[in-house]
Amino acid sequence: MKAPSLAAVAVASIGLAASAALLAKPVGITGDLMGVTVMHNGQKVEIKRNQDNKATVNPAFAKTSRPCPPFCIQPIVLAPGVETLGETEVLAYLKRMSEGDGSIMVIDSRTPDWVSRGTIPGAVNIPWTALNPAKGADPISIGEILTEKFGVAEVEGLWDYTNAKTLVMFCNGMWCGQSPNNIKNLLRFGYPSHKIKWYRGGMQNWSNLGFNTAKP
């Protein structure tokens, strides 16, 4: 039998590649949304999902059985008045931020060693330890975060939350206590619960759904 020519092999290879491309289906966020562009560290970043139909779970989030405590499963409702969000709601807040809505802040509550591995584009890192008096956070530094970052006003020694930002907080996922710690401390400081949102799925769900991340 005569061996196929190089040209025939090349044509066949192109045909296989074209067939594979046709078989690979786009991975959207919703049926009519492929991506969301946000600002991260002064640059535009498009949030989208991994387009590889054969992509699998990130090994960093493949573990099923972390010791509890401290890695105990968090409830769906963290505190009265605090809304629990999914990915599309988080994306909507990120989009509003990127369009200039300064009344919103998306916060990665994890410690810097976790954040350095990648965070949600558009998020700002405020570690849970920075708002936790039990971890050494002093009243002055906490007050500076409230006033300089969250838009809280100090009036005659009291906190005025009239113009406080809506905070969307997350950490590593449903087994992580870092964003719950931030949220519970803010509530103790009097932060209005309706201005606090919680992305319970955090980085585990974000990663498992194939969303891209950004460096802090």
Summarize the structure.
The protein is an alpha/beta fold and 216 residues long. It is built from 6 helices and 9 strands. It has one domain: Rhodanese-like domain (Oxidized Rhodanese, domain 1).
How would you characterize the overall build of this protein?
The chain has helices at 6-23, 87-98, 112-115, 139-149, 178-188, 202-208, and strands spanning 36-40, 43-47, 83-85, 104-108, 124-125, 153-155, 158-160, 166-170, 196-199. The longest helix has 18 residues, at 6-23. The protein is globular, with a radius of gyration of 22 Å. It is α/β, with parallel strands linked by helices and 216 residues long.
Task: Please describe the structure with a list of short key phrases separated by commas or semicolons.
five-stranded parallel beta sheet, 6 helices, Oxidized Rhodanese, domain 1, alpha/beta, 216 residues, two-stranded antiparallel sheet, 9 strands, single chain
Q: How do the strands and helices of this protein lay out in sequence?
A:
Blueprint lengths: L5 H18 L12 E5 L2 E5 L35 E3 L1 H12 L5 E5 L3 H4 L8 E2 L13 H11 L3 E3 L2 E3 L5 E5 L7 H11 L7 E4 L2 H7 L8
Parallel strand pairs: 3-9, 4-5, 4-8, 8-9
Antiparallel strand pairs: 1-2, 6-7
Shape: globular
How many independent structural domains? 1
Residues in helices, as a percent range: 25-40%
Number of strands: 9
What is the fourth-level CATH superfamily? Rhodanese-like domain
Average the pLDDT over all residues and give the rounded result.
92
Strand order of the largest sheet: 3-9-8-4-5
At CATH level 2, the architecture is 3-Layer(aba) Sandwich
The CATH class label is: Alpha Beta
Low-confidence stretches: none
What is the fold-level CATH name, i.e. the topology? Oxidized Rhodanese, domain 1
Determine Rg (CA atoms, Å): 22 Å
SS field, number of helical segments? 6
- The proportion of residues in beta strands is 15-25%
